[in-house]
Specification:
Elements (H helix, E strand, L loop, with lengths): L2 E7 L13 H15 L5 E7 L7 H12 L6 E4 L2 E5 L4 H14 L1
Parallel strand pairs: 1-2
Antiparallel strand pairs: 1-3, 3-4
């Protein structure tokens, strides 16, 4: 079973994360980094623009939450659980992936 990695972000860099990479750059970096770190795992990656979420209700709901609760973006979810926001740490995301893999 694939571990689902969802990255919610926007074209414009979060005002509080001026020196952080863009949401899309973070999404691409996570794809490469997690594939290297977890060679035996399968991942399902998705990028969701918080200003134009896809048609899925869960994407729209969470995108609205990011905006309404002023979460720093990008926000990274691992199997639906927040693993990081703003300046994303590979260590934190990897820990969330390990937890998700051990639970499945």
């Amino acid at each position: 079973m694939a571990t689902k990695i969802s990255v919610y972000g926007a074209e414009i860099i979060c005002a509080s994360c001026v020196n952080a990479p863009s949401s899309k750059d973070t999404y691409e970096w996570l794809q490469a980094a997690l594939a290297r770190k977890f060679k035996d795992n399968q991942f399902e990656f998705e990028y969701i623009d918080i200003h134009e979420p896809s048609g899925e209700a869960e994407h729209k709901q969470f995108a609205d939450k990011v905006i309404e609760e002023d979460l720093f973006y990008p926000v990274v979810l691992v199997d639906g659980e927040i693993a990081g926001e703003g300046m994303i740490s590979l260590k934190a995301v990897a820990k969330a992936v390990e937890k998700a893999v051990s639970a499945s």
